[in-house]
Amino acid sequence: MTADYNDYMFYAPIYHYAVRDWKNKKTSLMELYNRIDRNLERKDDDSVITNYHKDSLSMIESISEIFTDEINLFCGKVQSRFKLACAWFELTDKHAYHSMHNHGCTGYSSVCYIKYNSDEHKPTHFMSPFPNFLTGLQLTYTPEVDEGSIIFFPSYISHFTEPNLSDENRLIVSFNLQSV
Question: Is residue 92 part of a domain?
């Protein structure tokens, strides 16, 4: 006997929220950023300015505290518990971009847009782990974001940013979450 049904064989979820109490949280993020900005350095491979290799572990407590509401909301949605594994800032000045990469094969990653002008900047682009099954073309997903948007996505999903063509810098904070 055969069954008639439609289903997804594979699924890659993304969770997109507006950060609660954004004005105060942005102030806290900017204070943290200003304390560590001396440790930011330009990556050779794609020109973003980041503290990923310097302060990533030291930011965990502050970022966990700032995003408690959003992390709890996300954990409730996926019905799992997570802890921050690392966190970092990324500044994209004029002509800078972040080449395609992923954050490993397990857990979730997050990006929050701190200084972001939707008229001037482009959001993160996410690449499907498999091509369009009819055309073979690469699939991408580009969410509509605003300053104060936070996105949680599977860490294995490759993603990138386009070059910033604006004189206005784009600033994000990212972090990786591991299951507990």
Answer: yes
Q: Is residue 9 part of a domain?
A: no
Low-confidence ranges of the chain (pLDDT < 70): 1-2, 43-46
pLDDT tens profile 127-141: 999 999 899 999 999
Put residue 21 in one of left, alpha, beta given phi > 0 → left and psi -120 to 50 → alpha: left
Q: Which residue shows structure tokens 């970092």?
A: 88
CB atoms within 10 A of CB 32: 18
Q: How many domains does the chain have?
A: 1
Average pLDDT, the chain: 92
Asked if 92 and 169 touch (Cβ cutoff 8 Å), the reply is: yes
CATH label of the domain that carries residue 22? 2.60.120.620
